[in-house]
């Protein structure tokens, strides 16, 4: 088992919130959470769907940007097995940059799931496949008239007006109904060491609160917060 496979195997037992708590303990901005991106398939923000894997980035550019490079072939055919595809679509996100045929191919290649920092369409097609998909929004119109896939395997910036974040190739994504978290590869081992301690403290708090202890006392006793 490679180092990356070991990290992924251990991350699978934890939720996105657990990983965020671990990153927050290290002072990492926003606990790695990416605002505004939610689970759309196989269900909308419900159920037990969770994806964990190394990031494969796809950067789209606006159609008028003729100086930008273009991906050779189709990016969807280049997805590594078990990867989480992170697609960065330039705003505005009126047209969708991703549709049902893309999920059909991504699933066939063994992708863990797709995260779209932009718009998706063909929701029922993704859901019929049972394919994990997260997006910022959804719509009906294809994106070919407004944007194109420019590069793969490059750092991309979150398309947000209220949050700055960089998603790097081979970082890890943990995503579930609570949201999408990016775990920098160089922090993975530290976070995996922290998470069990945080989860254990929260479990003790929960039991104490069920038994009648105040939240203030429980936090002071098990989290060390006064």
From TrEMBL:
The protein's required cofactors: Mg(2+)
Binding site for Mg(2+): 122
Keywords, sorted A to Z: Magnesium, Metal-binding
GO MF, one example: metal ion binding
Top-level taxon of origin: Eukaryota
Gene3D superfamilies: Ribonuclease E inhibitor RraA/RraA-like
SUPFAM superfamilies: RraA-like
UniProt: substrate binding residues: 99-102, 121
Pfam families for this protein: RraA-like
Protein name: 4-hydroxy-4-methyl-2-oxoglutarate aldolase
Species assigned in the record: Clonostachys byssicola
